[in-house]
Specification:
Blueprint (H helix, E strand, L loop, with lengths): L6 E2 L2 H16 L4 E7 L10 E2 L2 E7 L8 H18 L7 E5 L5 H9 L2 E5 L2 H30 L8
Parallel strand pairs: 4-5
Antiparallel strand pairs: 1-3, 2-4, 2-6
Helix pairs in contact: 1-2, 3-4
Length: about 160
């Protein structure tokens, strides 16, 4: 993966982008909640961003299409809508959280994110599920680290 230079962006542009993306997501009833994460919401790099990262959660019984099709459709719609509003400076990356690796989702939820669309019950249930899976896999991670370093790994507090 190549490191991309960060782009300049002002607060008005950011607000408009968030508004437009929220409008888009509200039109998709199959999306229960959506999270904006990554450089776009990172307070350590004010006035700059790499791309717009959106995590999507689809109602499980609505998952009748290949994941990459759902993701690419949202990316294309977002790009088209943002471009039509004169905001064609923005690359968008959508990730379906339903099948994302637990490590990725756990890291996302521990970091800074902005809720773009919310079904409170679905979001709460998802966070609880991620927490349970992370706890279930914790001992495996510790064992793996121990194997890598060739000794018993003890996590510091």
């Amino acid at each position: 993966m190549a490191i991309k230079p960060l782009r300049e962006i002002n607060d008005q542009q950011k607000e408009k982008i968030v508004e437009v993306v929220k409008e888009l997501l509200d039109r998709h009833k199959e999306i229960k909640f959506a999270l904006l994460y990554g450089s776009f919401v990172n307070p350590d790099i004010q006035g700059k961003y790499g791309d717009i990262d959106i995590g999507l959660y689809i109602e499980p019984d609505q998952l009748n299409t290949y994941t990459y099709i759902l993701e690419s459709n949202i990316e294309a719609e977002a790009y088209s809508l943002l471009s039509s509003k004169g905001l064609n400076i923005v690359p968008v990356e959508a990730v379906l959280l339903n099948h994302a690796p637990i490590f990725f989702v756990s890291k996302l939820l521990k970091g800074r994110y902005l809720i773009l669309k919310e079904d409170e019950e679905a979001l709460t249930n998802f966070i609880e599920e991620v927490g349970e899976k992370a706890m279930d896999n914790y001992h495996l991670r510790i064992e793996s680290i121990g194997e890598l370093v060739g000794e018993t790994y003890v996590e510091s507090g």
